[in-house]
Amino acid sequence: MKTTKWPQRLPIWAVGYQTGAYLSLSLAADGSIMEPRKFFNFFLGVTLAFAPVNGAYDKERDALLKGTFPQDFIWSSATAAYQIEGAWNVSDKGPSIWDTLAHQGRVNNQDTGDVACDSYHKYPEDVALMKQMGLKYYRFSISWPRIFPTGEQQDGVNQDGVDYYNRLIDELIVNDIQPMVTLFHWDLPQVLQDRYGGFLNNHTNTTVIHDLFGDYARFLYQNYGDRVKYWITFNEPWITAWLGYGIGNFAPQHNEPAEGQYKAAHNIILSHAKAYHIYDDEFRAAQGGQVGITLNCDWGTPKTPADADAALRYVQFFLGWFAHPIYKNGDYPEVMKTTMARKAQEEGRTTSRLPEFTPEQKLSISGTGDFFGLNHYTTVEVTDACCTPIENPNYDTDKDVGTGHAPDWPRAASSWLYVVPWGIRNLLGFIKEEYGDPEIYVTENGRSDHDQDPAIMMDMERICYYMMYTNEVMKASNMDNVKVKAYTAWSLLDNFEWLSGYSERFGLHYVDFNDPTRTRYPKASSVFFKQLVRNNGYPEGSEFTKYVENMWYFCHNTTEAEVNGYTGGASQISSLFSLFLAIPMMIAYSLIA
Ligand code: BGC
């Protein structure tokens, strides 16, 4: 579909501009000029990817908002231990469930995180990259088995691992970068999975896994809390619960899709509450930091007005599953409880597959977030699918919805990632209304490219993604009064993208995984992001904002003339100029300068 309008629109002079622009872009990752055949493929690929389509742009909804974020707005970038550290078995580090899964050859291309970006050794370079971009915050995670090899403190502490994070944190502080630390980004110690079933451990009462997570949290607060003021207990428990213990494609690959995810989520929520209270009771007064959790959610937009309730149900089953207990009232959303109770009846069960919290547990869970961490990437269109009886129920069918994508939503390399910038504004508004106007930290947002040869260094689509999504975040902040305090780009570096291995690249910096020294190269998006941070948004009249204005329609896969009507040719020329020449050249120039 994207290609059909292209030849009709492109005047011959623009072809010249285009060729010139892409020639200026045709550098391989090592800076050499590409071979003609590679260049032709590259040229074709980029041309097809960027050919405009009609229809997606909504003049009111998608217009560029000029202005800046509040003065104290936090700009950050994020990584996670297993995805970047490597050094999987140095000193006494224990194996995690992701080491196990990768070593069983279950990742695309049999990739592993054994070396990854080698940040265990190269962290000073990573910090230097952040410094270069003007970032003042860095979100990273600590590997539990690097601290306690078995997951249990009583079995021993890996002092080298403790020292590693001390060095990293010190390096950040010296460079005036605040650490935001995630305690758990999916790399559970394998021993805890083997000994206790991981997060499936006896899910209804106080269980070992809550206490063990509490001990681990306490140890981190004790050792790093003098310098770390932002703690995130869990990253995306939805993924651990559903992909890890429900559908079972992610580690630890436990396949129990009717109930596994509900049990695991229950344990994670209780473990989170435990870690929160430990900070509150033992550390907050002396350390003065904040503790929250990071939840992921795709926005669900109704396909037709009749699907509005279904879309809400979709978001409640996704975000509300964790957010409702933690940020609202200690318990699961009503719609989840009633839906699951009805299903229990239909399935002839005496109890719901969704576990219940005791009154004491509800009290201890409610209000355990000093901020609301949000990871958001994409949006789905939701249709109502209520209420067909299902023979083998699972979390997906429990929601009684169908999901799809509008045909004009552009796609990233990851199969699930459709680019729908306005979705984040809707989601932020939903969180404000639903959870009592919390302070929201966007702890991840970003876009993937394929790993391809030649490398995508002029990553225009990522620039567009950041431009459009951050502008929507600014609309939420400045127009809708959502208390958004932070925006975090995923990711600082290309890294180990879980089951996709190194085949999908989310980085602001390119990492050469064939190079034993794992050299990092800035992509064009890192230059863009640096300017965004420096401008704290899109201030009226700045050079940066003018550049963004020139890019705006191109990024939305349309032209100014299509949106505002043909006004004598100038707008068409300006839009083509920015599309084919000005933008790539400006970026190339900034990279060299
Ligand atoms: C995760 C990251 C992951 C990213 C892109 C988030 O779900 O927290 O670890 O790399 O999405 O898939």
TrEMBL record:
<keyword id="KW-1133">Transmembrane helix</keyword>
<dbReference type="GO" id="GO:0004553">
    <property type="term" value="F:hydrolase activity, hydrolyzing O-glycosyl compounds"/>
</dbReference>
<keyword id="KW-0326">Glycosidase</keyword>
<dbReference type="Pfam" id="PF00232">
    <property type="entry name" value="Glyco_hydro_1"/>
</dbReference>
<dbReference type="InterPro" id="IPR018120">
    <property type="entry name" value="Glyco_hydro_1_AS"/>
</dbReference>
<feature type="transmembrane region" description="Helical">
    <location>
        <begin position="12"/>
        <end position="33"/>
    </location>
</feature>
<comment type="subunit">
    <text>Homodimer.</text>
</comment>
<keyword id="KW-0325">Glycoprotein</keyword>
<dbReference type="GO" id="GO:0005975">
    <property type="term" value="P:carbohydrate metabolic process"/>
</dbReference>
<comment type="similarity">
    <text>Belongs to the glycosyl hydrolase 1 family.</text>
</comment>
<dbReference type="InterPro" id="IPR033132">
    <property type="entry name" value="GH_1_N_CS"/>
</dbReference>
<keyword id="KW-0378">Hydrolase</keyword>
<dbReference type="InterPro" id="IPR017853">
    <property type="entry name" value="GH"/>
</dbReference>
<dbReference type="InterPro" id="IPR001360">
    <property type="entry name" value="Glyco_hydro_1"/>
</dbReference>
<keyword id="KW-0472">Membrane</keyword>
<protein>
    <recommendedName>
        <fullName>beta-glucosidase</fullName>
        <ecNumber>3.2.1.21</ecNumber>
    </recommendedName>
</protein>
<feature type="active site" description="Nucleophile">
    <location>
        <position position="444"/>
    </location>
</feature>
<keyword id="KW-0812">Transmembrane</keyword>
